[in-house]
TrEMBL record:
Annotated ranges, domain Penicillin-binding protein transpeptidase: 352-598
Protein name per Swiss-Prot or TrEMBL: PBP1A family penicillin-binding protein
One Pfam family linked to the record: Transgly
InterPro entries, alphabetized: Beta-lactam/transpept-like, Glyco_trans_51, Glycosyltr_51/Transpeptidase, Lysozyme-like_dom_sf, PBP_transglycosylase, PCN-bd_Tpept
Superkingdom field: Bacteria
Ranges annotated as spanning the membrane: 33-53
Keywords: Carboxypeptidase, Cell membrane, Cell shape, Cell wall biogenesis/degradation, Glycosyltransferase, Hydrolase, Membrane, Multifunctional enzyme, Peptidoglycan synthesis, Protease, Transferase, Transmembrane, Transmembrane helix
Catalytic reaction equation(s): Preferential cleavage: (Ac)2-L-Lys-D-Ala-|-D-Ala. Also transpeptidation of peptidyl-alanyl moieties that are N-acyl substituents of D-alanine; [GlcNAc-(1->4)-Mur2Ac(oyl-L-Ala-gamma-D-Glu-L-Lys-D-Ala-D-Ala)](n)-di-trans,octa-cis-undecaprenyl diphosphate + beta-D-GlcNAc-(1->4)-Mur2Ac(oyl-L-Ala-gamma-D-Glu-L-Lys-D-Ala-D-Ala)-di-trans,octa-cis-undecaprenyl diphosphate = [GlcNAc-(1->4)-Mur2Ac(oyl-L-Ala-gamma-D-Glu-L-Lys-D-Ala-D-Ala)](n+1)-di-trans,octa-cis-undecaprenyl diphosphate + di-trans,octa-cis-undecaprenyl diphosphate + H(+)
Annotated ranges, domain Glycosyl transferase family: 80-254
Amino acid sequence: MMQSKQTPWWKRAFRAIWEQFKRLNHRFLLTRWFIIIVLLLTLVSVTYLTVIAKTAHVRDLQSNLSRSTVIYDQNGAQAGKLYAQKGTYVNADQISPNLADAITSTEDRNFYHEHGFSMKGYGRAVLLAITNKLTGKNQISGGGSTISQQLAKNTFLSQQQILSRKFKELFISIEIENIYSKKQILTMYMNNAYFGNGVYGVQDASRKYFGMDADELPVQDAAVLAGMLQNPSNNPIDHPEAAKQRRNVVLQLMADNKKIPQSKVKYYQSLPLGTKDTFTVGNNYKYPSYFDAVINEAISKYGLSEKAIMNNGYKIYTNLNQQQQQSFQTDFKDPSLFPQNAADGTKVQAASVALNPKTGGVQAVVGGRNKDVFRGFNRATDIKRQPGSTMKPLAVYAPALENGFKYDSELVNKKLSYGKNHYTPKNINDVYTGKVPMYQALAQSLNAPAVWTLDQIGVNKGYEAVQKFNLPVTKKDDNLALALGGLSTGVSPQQLAGAYTAFANQGRLTKPFYITKIVDSTGKTIVQNNGSTPTQVMSKNTARQMTSMMLGVFNYGTGTTAKPAGYQVAGKTGSTEADNSTDADATRDKWVVGYTPDVVVATWEGFDSTNSEHHLENLSGTGVNSLFKHQMEQILPYTEQHQFKVQDTATMIAAKNSRQNKVTPGGSEWMQKAEELNQKLLNKGTNLTDKAIEKARSFLGF
């Protein structure tokens, strides 16, 4: 009795719990259920990891690593290559045996005796992972990675250090060992390893640090490269002392692994580094904005990862027109085509895109005037800015023609207020003529008649038209400000150019795209894209009338200084006010979008951040008009130079009036009716011709 009282309470509690557990275990077989659950989870995990390994396309690994991803233009000509963890690939017989000995001695001494993983090393890594979990660190501390595992991690997995990645790495490394020989694995690893200063692979590293090919490396230099694998920053150019110390450690490891005699270690350690740089970087990433956009489309549209695109040796065929792209890039480097920088040196930014209106294929794109950064901000595709008056043809005049208006319909040109909020649009010069024909209102970019016309046809019709043109509008934009480009989010140059393809393509809208085909390293076509089927967003007659009116923009309207010499271009200019400036001429955005039957070009200009110190001036001179004019003069001579089937509206009306003035008074009424009949027959004939051509194309499969 005394003994029972002296037993500590916690022991008594533990004994009671244990007895209760034994009764429950005996009754419900808890131990067996626990074992079954553990085995089931293990089976599921192993099955999942096996599927991951089997579907990782390991068989294509050597083919992928030995080839660079190549970009081709619209004619199938090579335009450049994409490099990431990719250097000059060399075969095993082009690599010094000294380097293989140094790397295996340093990174994985048992490489030739294991099957992709080390049990001791793996156990150590898992133990560290569990310890870090218990201490609140959601990462692993490394360790346990064989050469095969490092190859698996670098080529198939992210660098995120979590336990699940470690298990995937294990199973993929086993699959690598099942398919490739030790010699092949080591060769792939050496070609894929990073050696600092943006250099991948032993061949380029040998050139970068020692001025020789990889098959010429002596023992001491091979030890330097092997020593850099754990810390590439400790290279002989940037940190020679650290590189030498690490080299000497590697030399001793090589002796311990019986790859060099112990008697030679001190001799090798005494040798100077002998650094010599003869490495040159090829200029294969020639078109940064375009190549960035290609990568983005491959990721967003086709589900490829950046790592796969950069490393897997794809052939990517695109709509790139190298002449247009090169001329765009040259223009953007010419400061004389842009306004002066702000007082603090900030550059006026710009972006341009050129499309094929028949297919929507992007032929050229430049995303800014900054120093190129890999997959950096591309203003041609990424900005969202107010389109200003470039919205008038889309939201007002095209739907107006579709709803009974004509190109010479008289529009009210008065300063009017609309709605409960008294929305009052003003012409840029605050001058009003009472009435104005539509073609003049468009060419001169008058605001008052544009808003009046949208009010007449109904805001919703304009809103629905803009949606059909594939521009990003929301219900917030379903108001009269839509006529003047007052959108809640804005558009990019690429989106605006895409909308204008309908005017250049007989009313059929095409969507911008870059990639036409992707072929993997084995020759298999994994993507085939000829562009989406064009969408008829307005009648052919409306598209022709709109082109006729928009020719006037460059002939006598707001785009006269943007007109390329010797060419007919239709389109629209636009600008938006800088609201936070007291300067009456302060402008936030300037736009020109113009087209021929062969190409659509949209160009934007402005500051990234607009304020009182950073805005454009709404004055003539150097600016977006000058840039657009120069761009078109450079690219149009190399297009097919198809001509518009319509004349400028003002020219047609002037010719019509001239003929009417020449006829006799008695015959004027008859002549007018004859001309009207002739015009109707002409339009009818053109429509029939278009239909015949369309049927012929359909029959021939064009």
